Amino acid sequence: MQGFCLIKPFQSKNLFRVMGTRISLGFCWLLYSNLFNEFFFFPTYNKYTLFVSFMTNSSYVKNITQIREELNDFFKNSVESPLLMEQKQSFSGLSYFSIKESLNFSLKLQKYENPEEIIILATKGDERRYLRYGYFEFNHENVKNRLTVYKHPDEDYLFVPFKDKTSGKESYGGGRYLELEPLEGDLFKIDFNMAYLPYCVFNDKYSCTLVPPENFLDVSIPAGQMNFP
Fold first, then answer.
1. Residue 15 zone, left/alpha/beta (φ > 0; ψ -120 to 50; rest)
2. Are 106 and 193 in the same domain?
3. Total number of domains in the chain
4. pLDDT one-digit tens code per residue, 98-133
């Protein structure tokens, strides 16, 4: 599937499933970003599937709300959901912070000249190789914050795990993940309203990459998914 990707409608006219390899998914983004105003990425935690919402004339808040509704449907009804059958029966929806447009950034990726390969542990003790690929800087709560961006050595997938002062309180103590939306050049959309929980929060059969200490933020990020249940 490396040379193409497959786009299929999912539940509503604005939400689609995009299936392919990491490389071809990146190609799809480059191809279709010229046709639509904006993409919102939300992974199904399956390496080969992403949810994509096409933002047309609706407002930002309305589109985020719709994505959350569709994701709730996915968690409750999809065979790809991380929830066990007994969890699905009592599942009433994921918990979220209120939507804050102030935590939606367009940031330049500062790439390292010689990315260092490192090992990051996962929740079950397994080791995962990543490159310290670069970093983003952004201002929040009158503080200049930095998040390191990690890249899989054999793929184009960029990965940003983080903790903040809500971790272990309103949000999961192990931290949350961010998907990056490419814009132009080295610019990326970093939307904390799309911050999500790793699958190991919902089902202990999964092993999830731990957040490196350098991505512990000394501010609160009250956006995105809250703790579960």
1. beta
2. yes
3. 2
4. 999 999 999 999 999 999 999 999 999 999 999 999
